[in-house]
Amino acid sequence: MRIHSLRLTNYRGIxxxxxxxxPIGLTIVEGPNEIGKSSLSEAIRLLFEYLDSSKRNEVKAIxxxxxxxxxxxxxxxxxxxxxxxxxxxxxxKPETTLTIMKPKLENHTGREAHERAEEILRETxxxxxxxxxxxxxxxxxxxxxxxxxxxxxxxxxxVAGGHRxxxxxxxxxxxxxxxxxxxxxxxxxxxKELQESQKAQEESETEVTFLETQIQxxxxxxxxxxxxxxxxxxxKKQEQxxxxxxxxxxxxxxxxxxxxxxxxxxxxxxxxxxxSEHVAKRDKEERQDLIDLGxxxxxxxxxxxxxxxxxxxxxxxxxKDLDKAQSEATKTEDGRKESELLLNLHRADFDxxxxxxxxxxxxxxxxxxxxxxxESALADELLNKTSIDKNTLETIKTAEIELITVKAKLETGVxxxxxxxxxxxxxxxxxxxxIVLKDEELSLSVSDRxxxxxxxxxxxxxxxxxxxxxxxxxxxxxxxxLDDVCNNAGVSNADEARKSYDVRREALQAIARQKEIExxxxxxxxxxxxxxxxxxxxxxxxxxxxxxxxxPKLPENLEAAKGEQQRAEGDLExxxxxxxxxxxxxxxxxxxxxxxxxxxxxxxxKLSLKAEELNRAVDELVRRRKIISDGxxxxxxxxxxxLVHAEKENVKSAExxxxxxxxxxxxxxxxxxxxxxxxxxxxxxxxxxxxxxxxTRLKIFGEEGLHEKLHVAQSHLDYTRQENTAMIRRAQxxxxxxxxxxxxxxxxxxxxxxxLKEKIERLGRLVFxxxxxxxxxxxxxxxxxxxxxxNVPFESLSGGTKEQISLISRLACAMTVSKNGGASLILxxxxxxxxxxxxxxxxxxxxxxxxxxxxxxxxxxxxxYSNVGETTVARLG
Amino acid sequence: xxxxxxxxxxxxxxxxxxxxxxxxxxxxxxRFDAIRELGRIAKKEDCQFxxxxxxxxxxxxxxxxxxxxxxxxxxxxxxxxxxLPGNHDPLNAASVFCSTTxxxxxxxxxxxIEDTTPIRVVKGxxxxxxxxxxxxxxxxxxALTTGKLEPIGDTLRVCVAHGxxxxxxxxxxxxxxxxxxxxxxALSQNKIHYLALGDRHSLTKVGDSGRIWYxxxxxxxxxxxxxxxxxxxxxxxxxxVTTKEVNVGRWKFIEREQVDLNTKxxxxxxxxxxxxxxxxxxxxxxxxxxxxxxxSLYSEFEELIFHIKEVLAAAETRVNNLIVIxxxxxxxxxxxxxxxxxxxxxxxxxVEGSGPDPIASRDALSLLVRLxxxxx
Lengths: 877, 376
Known about the structure:
The structure holds 2 protein chains of 2 kinds.
Chain A: E1 2-11, E2 14-20, E3 25-30, H1 37-49, H2 57-60, E4 71-79, E5 82-90, E6 95-102, E7 106-109, H3 110-124, H4 127-133, H5 150-160, H6 167-183, H7 192-385, H8 390-412, E8 416-420, E9 425-429, E10 432-436, E11 441-445, E12 449-454, E13 458-463, H9 468-489, H10 494-522, H11 527-547, H12 558-627, H13 630-660, H14 663-702, H15 706-767, E14 773-776, E15 782-787, E16 790-793, H16 799-818, E17 825-828, H17 836-850, E18 854-859, E19 871-875
Parallel strand pairs in A: 3-18, 3-19, 17-18
Antiparallel strand pairs in A: 1-2, 1-4, 4-5, 5-6, 6-7, 8-11, 9-10, 9-12, 12-13, 14-15, 15-16
Helix pairs in contact in A: 5-15, 5-16, 6-15, 7-10, 7-11, 7-12, 7-13, 7-14, 7-15, 8-9, 8-10, 15-16, 15-17, 16-17
Chain B: E1 2-7, H1 21-44, E2 49-52, H2 64-75, E3 81-83, H3 100-105, E4 110-112, E5 119-122, E6 125-129, H4 141-148, E7 156-162, H5 180-188, E8 194-198, E9 204-205, E10 212-214, E11 230-237, E12 240-247, E13 252-261, H6 264-276, E14 283-294, H7 295-311, E15 314-325, H8 328-331, H9 339-354, H10 358-375
Parallel strand pairs in B: 1-2, 2-3, 3-4, 6-7, 7-8, 8-10, 13-14, 14-15
Antiparallel strand pairs in B: 1-11, 5-6, 9-10, 11-12
Helix pairs in contact in B: 1-2, 6-7, 9-10
């Protein structure tokens, strides 16, 4: 659509205004703020969108304040093949007229005019695109939403060289998407309707399964009921048989009971007879025991009397033996004591000789120590006299050696010539003949000069080079030093020093020797202790001789004393042994006597007791016999023995009668039969209960109409299954169709992105630079800009750049569709964020775009568009 | 001479999955109506009693309502009725004949044959019924029962039984099959004079004696039945047995194999055939369609079936062997040239077998055609 003119009357604050537009190229509508520039684009939209009678707020808003007049909008334009004039008055006296001048004249009024205008618009331009491309005030930064612009898509299709899309295809795609949306979410998940359909099927399946299970349970119950009937029959028969068996056994048991009573009676009689027989036997045995006891006591009494007599003689003999042993023991003890005294004397003698010897030795050791002490005192004196110790002597010796050395140097401090014979030859040394043999060396000292002549061959003069004076001086110094040292030591020369040192050394050795002697003779004692011992022993030893008894005589010496002592020890040992033996014999004899005495006492007590026992036995027997005689006891016993025998026979016979009836077997069988009967009764009762239970259940559920219920459930399941299958099928069809169409549509979109991108970049390079590139998405928006190799997402660009790229992309779209009768581009105060430098460049872009499409710029800042080349300028206000 | 009405397999309470709720009710009602119709026939034909040879009820677990309605219908039957438990309603612990509803409401002239003891129905005539006590007997009950009978001279004996005759059954291993030979022996030995059978839903004469018959079900139940919807008026006299078939049923089950659909003309032919069907509301059809149709012809066919389903009692179609091919003609008027056209091409190639999921692709194309139509 290209707008030729727009006239507004009583529109917001505008009384009357008409703007003429250039059908191609740029038209700039200038005017200060609030003069109604934005109203121009608004008016065009309202004109086509609302009926003249509309009460919408947007329409109400254009009515002038404080004035009751109608707002008028009149537009002259061409769109596609149509050239028309379209007029509307709102609010007061509403009116709509449409006059179509081309291709053929048409006049319409009222609603018809509105609808016809709409039709033309729909037929010739993409209204959505037209709206999307227009920039309203303050919206400059956003990119146009071009994703649904069919005319743009169609135009791009052509540019991209593909098939031209029918405009209805997009609409069809919307329908397909809507159909898909019935079943799936945007992300492809199933929607509630589809899920509920599947759930309904599952519920139906559950219901059918439930009913089938119920029917199966009933079928099982039917089988169970039949089984239970048979089981009950069987148990009834079993019960009857067992009743018969039990009755039989009870009869047999009654008979057995009678026999058992008979047996029991005989057993009781037998027991009674056995007890009487036992008593008689016991009485008889007791009488015999009493007789035997009397006899036994008498015999024992006699034996004890005999024993008592013989014991008295034995005890007497033992006492004699004891006296004899006692006297022997006394005798041997005296001998032992005598030997002991003699041994003590000999021991004292031996001690005396020992002490005497020790005294002599101590005296001798003391003398040696005393002598050594005297020598040591002399040596100390000598030591005090001489002061030459080892160090002093060494100093003197060193001084002496130095003197000798210096003297020797004086003598030998000349060059030395060593002659070595390679063969035997003769030579002359200072005119003296000499012979040097092979491998022999000859040393010559040269104090002043020496001449060596090898006759007939060679003459060698050797001359000493050092000064004899220096050496003489050193000799003097050495001598002086030696003298000083000697004087200091108190000796006249070195030899005297040596002698003095030797004297000192010997004195020291004497002192050392004295110490050795003292140590050796004192041993572990001190000198005082030695002295005290000598004094003590010197007193004690002579005293012994005075105190000693005269006989026996004192032995001659230590050896003799020792011999006497040993002999006395032997004698004492012997006397001890004899005494010990005599004492043992005495103990033995005493023990024998004591034992015999004790035995004798025991026999006497026993004898007394036995005599009493014998008396008691005799008395008891007499008493018993008075009560019942021995003969009566015997006949009583014999009578009961016969009775026991007779009763035993009776018991045996009753036992045989009873065992013939097999009581245990019969009892066990009766017990078992009763048990079995109880079991069978319980089983029958349980089966009966079960049967009642099953039949009741069958009665209750059998008439519930499960058959029909199942059918209803199955039919419902069939229905839901079909519904579900159909729905799934519809959903799958919708999904497949949607996805296939989307893929194809996206494919086409991808193809036509290229021409739009190319156009945006061509325009953009005028503003930015030759490296300017953009990434255009499939919904035709700019995703990022690349410049000088740097890629920046659209959203991260500066406000100005975003505005410029948005405008460029709109211009590119408008240029793309303009030849196709597309939209005119209305820019309402765009480029507010763009700096002056860029504005200039954007002017070039607008000028270039204006050559291909109609661009209407509404602005209150005309200078912003001073660089857009040739334009039509309209001024408002 | 005696005359009685021989029927069986009423299958009261029978349900069919392909019936909608309303149709099912009609179908059930027709079976109760058939009882009344049999009563009228019995009266009209001077029958002395009626024997129902098993499967009176579809199941022992039928609803009380079904039992009540059956007994209501039986009240109107003017002759004594002898009901035999069959394999569908055996005389077991859950037997419908022992249910409270049945026991409480059973009319006096209605009798359940509970065992094989001969029942004297009228003077000189007795019935020996062989009821099924379980669903699966393990022997030939007829041979077993007739084997124990003694030949009889002064009384006519009608044996009422249920089960398949061995000469008619493909399953020779079934131990419950009724031996034709044994049955004919019993007839020739004068142990019985007529064998009234139930179980087979088609009216069938068995053997050559003319005394062994299946009366069939009085109202059709399935496509496989050959001569269903009948009852038999049987007369026994000194000269032998005569039978008269009486039509009772009103429902029809029609199955057509190989309905070939390739052209518009084929669809028209089918349409005419369907239109010519009589008594549509009691007619059930099953069509096995073969051939190949374009997408638009298939839509037409679907429309036809959709319409006929509303009219018939039920219509089942099997289209597994029908191929639907999207043809150019289907899309020629859509006027697509852009991406929609490419999508159509892709889906068509899927349908023609070169792509995945041809059925979903065919559905997708149908949807596209539908949505385009809506767009117009």
